[in-house]
């Protein structure tokens, strides 16, 4: 019988969910759902000093926002709990004792200072740091003497000499590590009584019957240590797949919770009014692609299409511009009421609209949002784009200022203003007729005609149809803006 597919996303609660974490979670999720398996979330919180308040909650909330659902987690435990490593000491400690009893592990009484000193000496000699094996063969009397001194201890795993540790990586193919290359007998139980990462992970993946470990290749050097733990207990190892990491395009370094140079947390995009469906779609294409050229896929399509054989062997870089493009595709397909609902909170926050609106105001807002919807990358952009509808004194960028500095601009704007003032019916055809009339009157045409009018009334060089914009702006505001530009 083949094992049931069970995969896990195992974040440490040391920060918020970033694009790289989300990609790793998403690929595990797609892999599980594609094969009808289970997707599990386990919190790796053994590094007590680095855990942050709310880290776990934020990881889970943002996964849920992305519409990633899971079968087991700290909140909805299955039969393999607890799902936080800090709560699994009762599972780890007897296993550590078992290794001690069978002499596959031993207590090490070296102090931090002694270990540091040894490491510095090795580095000074140009050697790779490794534990010397100082405590590997202590007699019971020597141990008792250290204990009597009041020294505390760690437990180290006895690394077998001259062994090869091989696995067939789902992404990278066959990989072999020499046991002598892992830095000597490594710690499995820390001074604070917590198991180390590598020990806990191996135990948990085994106990939770994880079939495939799909994680970032930042973990690849951990794999031989974890394989040694499996071997020591006579357990069968899961299948490993080490996926290339997502790189920050700006710095060329891997995205990490500690990288603050770019917008990279899911939360930040959520707050800017990105759509979860668009983010899901975008993230699924970071380091993976289905056959063909299409780039827009629903969640169900991605579940159907996902194939681990198509995971990329080279790192994907995170391109925020591409994300904007994908999100724009999704925004364009929203009906106007839904998209207006997404934009309204941004207006409300700026005090430009109140959440309770008259029917008339709501209709006006929908028209306004609808003007800009086709060009928008995310909902928060609406504030900047519609500035002129709320603000008499817009801030113009340099290019816009240059347009207004043109020689024929005052003539054009004066003529346009006079015509608008004398308009009796204020609608799109008459506004268009006015522009034509200004062309005739001034002899200015093309860009030199349209651009100054557009910039003067809307503050921007690009945007929706000029007639629609002016109509929505209304006669009074249009004239006020023209006066401002002419002043
Ligand atoms: N840049 C990245 N690209 C893809 N996956 C990543 C990236 N960074 C981390 N991961 C993966 O996310 C999962 C959770 O890792 P972890 O909680 O240690 O996050 P982290 O961002 O690496 O944290 P840190 O800032 O401490 O390095 C792991 O499987 C890890 O491989
Ligand atoms: Zn020691």
From TrEMBL:
<comment type="function">
    <text>Catalyzes the attachment of glutamate to tRNA(Glu) in a two-step reaction: glutamate is first activated by ATP to form Glu-AMP and then transferred to the acceptor end of tRNA(Glu).</text>
</comment>
<feature type="domain" description="Glutamyl/glutaminyl-tRNA synthetase class Ib catalytic">
    <location>
        <begin position="4"/>
        <end position="325"/>
    </location>
</feature>
<feature type="binding site">
    <location>
        <position position="108"/>
    </location>
    <ligand>
        <name>Zn(2+)</name>
    </ligand>
</feature>
<dbReference type="InterPro" id="IPR033910">
    <property type="entry name" value="GluRS_core"/>
</dbReference>
<dbReference type="GO" id="GO:0005524">
    <property type="term" value="F:ATP binding"/>
</dbReference>
<dbReference type="Pfam" id="PF19269">
    <property type="entry name" value="Anticodon_2"/>
</dbReference>
<feature type="short sequence motif" description="'KMSKS' region">
    <location>
        <begin position="254"/>
        <end position="258"/>
    </location>
</feature>
<dbReference type="InterPro" id="IPR004527">
    <property type="entry name" value="Glu-tRNA-ligase_bac/mito"/>
</dbReference>
<dbReference type="InterPro" id="IPR014729">
    <property type="entry name" value="Rossmann-like_a/b/a_fold"/>
</dbReference>
<dbReference type="InterPro" id="IPR020751">
    <property type="entry name" value="aa-tRNA-synth_I_codon-bd_sub2"/>
</dbReference>
<dbReference type="InterPro" id="IPR008925">
    <property type="entry name" value="aa_tRNA-synth_I_cd-bd_sf"/>
</dbReference>
<dbReference type="InterPro" id="IPR049940">
    <property type="entry name" value="GluQ/Sye"/>
</dbReference>
<comment type="similarity">
    <text>Belongs to the class-I aminoacyl-tRNA synthetase family. Glutamate--tRNA ligase type 1 subfamily.</text>
</comment>
<keyword id="KW-0547">Nucleotide-binding</keyword>
<dbReference type="GO" id="GO:0006424">
    <property type="term" value="P:glutamyl-tRNA aminoacylation"/>
</dbReference>
<dbReference type="GO" id="GO:0004818">
    <property type="term" value="F:glutamate-tRNA ligase activity"/>
</dbReference>
<protein>
    <recommendedName>
        <fullName>Glutamate--tRNA ligase</fullName>
        <ecNumber>6.1.1.17</ecNumber>
    </recommendedName>
</protein>
<dbReference type="GO" id="GO:0005829">
    <property type="term" value="C:cytosol"/>
</dbReference>
<dbReference type="InterPro" id="IPR045462">
    <property type="entry name" value="aa-tRNA-synth_I_cd-bd"/>
</dbReference>
<keyword id="KW-0436">Ligase</keyword>
<dbReference type="InterPro" id="IPR020058">
    <property type="entry name" value="Glu/Gln-tRNA-synth_Ib_cat-dom"/>
</dbReference>
<dbReference type="InterPro" id="IPR000924">
    <property type="entry name" value="Glu/Gln-tRNA-synth"/>
</dbReference>
<dbReference type="GO" id="GO:0008270">
    <property type="term" value="F:zinc ion binding"/>
</dbReference>
<keyword id="KW-0479">Metal-binding</keyword>
<dbReference type="GO" id="GO:0000049">
    <property type="term" value="F:tRNA binding"/>
</dbReference>
<feature type="binding site">
    <location>
        <position position="110"/>
    </location>
    <ligand>
        <name>Zn(2+)</name>
    </ligand>
</feature>
<dbReference type="Pfam" id="PF00749">
    <property type="entry name" value="tRNA-synt_1c"/>
</dbReference>
<feature type="binding site">
    <location>
        <position position="137"/>
    </location>
    <ligand>
        <name>Zn(2+)</name>
    </ligand>
</feature>
<comment type="subunit">
    <text>Monomer.</text>
</comment>
<keyword id="KW-0963">Cytoplasm</keyword>
<feature type="binding site">
    <location>
        <position position="257"/>
    </location>
    <ligand>
        <name>ATP</name>
    </ligand>
</feature>
<feature type="domain" description="Aminoacyl-tRNA synthetase class I anticodon-binding">
    <location>
        <begin position="339"/>
        <end position="486"/>
    </location>
</feature>
<feature type="short sequence motif" description="'HIGH' region">
    <location>
        <begin position="11"/>
        <end position="21"/>
    </location>
</feature>
<keyword id="KW-0030">Aminoacyl-tRNA synthetase</keyword>
<keyword id="KW-0648">Protein biosynthesis</keyword>
<feature type="binding site">
    <location>
        <position position="135"/>
    </location>
    <ligand>
        <name>Zn(2+)</name>
    </ligand>
</feature>
<keyword id="KW-0067">ATP-binding</keyword>
<dbReference type="InterPro" id="IPR001412">
    <property type="entry name" value="aa-tRNA-synth_I_CS"/>
</dbReference>
<keyword id="KW-0862">Zinc</keyword>
């Amino acid at each position: 019988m083949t094992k049931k597919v069970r995969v896990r996303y195992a974040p440490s609660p040391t920060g918020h969910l970033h694009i790289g974490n989300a990609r790793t979670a998403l690929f595990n999720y797609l892999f599980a759902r594609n094969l009808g398996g289970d997707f599990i979330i386990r919190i790796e919180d053994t590094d007590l000093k680095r855990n942050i308040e709310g880290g776990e909650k934020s990881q889970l909330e943002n996964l849920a926002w992305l519409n990633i659902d899971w079968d087991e987690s700290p909140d909805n435990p299955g039969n393999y709990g607890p799902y936080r490593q800090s709560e699994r000491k009762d599972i780890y400690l007897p296993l550590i004792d078992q290794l001690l009893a069978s002499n596959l592990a031993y207590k090490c009484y070296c102090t931090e200072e002694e270990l540091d000193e040894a490491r510095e000496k090795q580095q000074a000699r140009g050697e790779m740091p490794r534990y010397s094996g100082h405590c590997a063969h202590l007699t019971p009397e020597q141990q008792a003497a250290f204990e009597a001194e009041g020294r505390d201890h760690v437990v180290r795993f006895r690394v077998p000499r001259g062994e090869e540790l091989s696995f067939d990586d789902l992404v990278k193919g066959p990989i072999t590590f020499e046991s002598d290359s892992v830095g000597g007998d490594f710690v499995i139980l820390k001074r604070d009584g917590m198991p180390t990462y590598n020990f806990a992970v191996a135990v948990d993946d085994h106990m939770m019957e994880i079939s495939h470990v799909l994680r970032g290749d930042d973990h690849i050097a951990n794999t031989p240590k974890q394989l040694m733990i499996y071997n020591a207990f006579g357990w069968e190892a899961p299948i490993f797949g080490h996926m290339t990491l997502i790189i920050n395009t700006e710095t060329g370094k891997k995205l990490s919770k500690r990288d603050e140079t770019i917008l990279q947390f899911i939360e930040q995009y959520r707050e800017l009014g990105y759509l979860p469906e668009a983010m899901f779609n975008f993230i699924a294409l970071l380091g993976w692609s289905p056959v063909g050229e299409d780039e827009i896929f629903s969640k169900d399509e991605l579940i159907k299409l996902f194939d681990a054989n198509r995971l990329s062997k080279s790192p994907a870089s995170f391109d925020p511009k591409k994300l904007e493009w994908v999100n724009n595709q999704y925004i364009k397909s929203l009906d106007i009421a839904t998209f207006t609902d997404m934009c309204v909170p941004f207006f409300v926050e700026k005090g430009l609209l109140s959440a309770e609106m008259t029917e008339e105001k709501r209709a006006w807002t929908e028209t306004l949002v609808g003007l800009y919807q086709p060009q928008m990358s995310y909902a928060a952009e609406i504030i900047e784009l519609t500035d002129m509808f709320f603000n008499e004194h817009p801030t113009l960028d340099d290019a816009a200022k240059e347009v207004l500095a043109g020689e024929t601009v005052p003539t054009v704007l004066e003529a346009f203003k006079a015509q608008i003032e004398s308009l009796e019916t204020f609608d799109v055809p008459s506004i268009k007729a006015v522009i034509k009339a200004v062309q005739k009157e001034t002899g200015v045409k093309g860009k030199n005609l349209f651009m100054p009018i557009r910039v003067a009334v809307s503050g921007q060089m690009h945007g929706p149809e000029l007639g629609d914009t002016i109509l929505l702006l209304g006669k009074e505001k249009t004239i006020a803006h023209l006066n401002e530009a002419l002043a």
